[in-house]
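User: Can you help me understand a structure? I only have the sequence.
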Amino acid sequence: MNPTLSSLIDLQLKGFKVYEKNLTLPPAQQPLLAAQIFNRRDYYKVLWLESTCVLRYAHHRLELDGSYLFFANPHIPYSLELRTNRLHAYACLFTEEFVKGADRSESRHQSPLFKLPAPQADYVRGIFQKMLAEQAGDYPFKGDLMRTYVQLLIHEALHLQPADPIFQPQNAATRLTALFLEQLERQFPIELPSQQLPLKTPQEFADRLAVQVNHLNKAVKQVTGKPTSAHLAGRILDEAKALLQHTDWSVASIGYCLGFEYPTYFNTFFKKHTGVTPLSLRHKA
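Assistant: Let's start by predicting it. Here is the structure, written out as C-alpha cells:
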C-alpha cells in the first residue's frame, strides 16, 4: 500500500474515539447528562469515572463513590445514574475490529469494574490524557499508538483486584426493574421514519416480561421511586427532543414513531411535559 495512503487511513482513527467530560450541572439535568455522555451502546468502552453514582450492569446494581475503571461491551446492557451534579470522566470507545486479535477481552467480561487507589487513578488518568493529546495530533501511526494505550489500560486492570463487594445481592423487584429498564432502552434510538416503538405502555412491557402490570409497577416504583409510566414517558420525551433537533422529519412522523396515532396526541403529550410545542422546540434549536 502507498505509505501516504496508509498514513491517511491511520490518521482517521476509524473505530476509535476518546474524550473527557468534566461537568457540574443542576440536579435536574443529572439523568440527561448521564444519558448524553454514555449513550453509545454499539462500541466497546473503557471509562475512568470520578463521581458518586449508581452503575447498573446486566442485572447488577453497584454504588460507586470515588475513582473507578470500568470496561463495557456492546453485548451487556448498562446504565449510569448520577447521585451528584459533579462528574469527571474519561472515555474511549472502539470497535472490535480496532483491537481485534490484540486485546484481553475476556478479562473485561469477567471483571468489569475496578476500584482505583490514588496512584493508579493518577496513572490511568494520565493514559487518557495522552490519548487525547495524540488524537488531536498528526502522528502518522496514532492508530497503533492508541491500541497500545488501550492495552495499557487493560493490563493495569489485570494488576488490580475487582472492587469487592462489587455485585450486591438483588431481590426480585430489583431484577424485574432491571429487565424493564433494559427492554425500555433497547427500543432506542429511532433511526428511520418508518420505525415504531414495539412497546408503548406499561401493560405491553408487563406482557413481554410475563408479569402482571400491577406487579411490574410496584417493583419499578419500589426500586426507582418512579412509576413505570414515568420512565416510559421520560424516555419517549428524550427521544422526541433528539429527533426534533437532529432530523428533518415532520412532527407527525416523529409522533408516529413514538407511538402516537395522531399528531394532536403527540403535541398534547409534548407540551404537557415541556411547556412548549414540538415545533417551538425545533425552531429554538
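Now, to help you interpret it: Residues 172-284 form a domain with the Arc Repressor Mutant, subunit A fold (CATH 1.10.10.60). The CA atoms of residues 58 and 69 lie 17 Å apart. Let me know which part you'd like to focus on.
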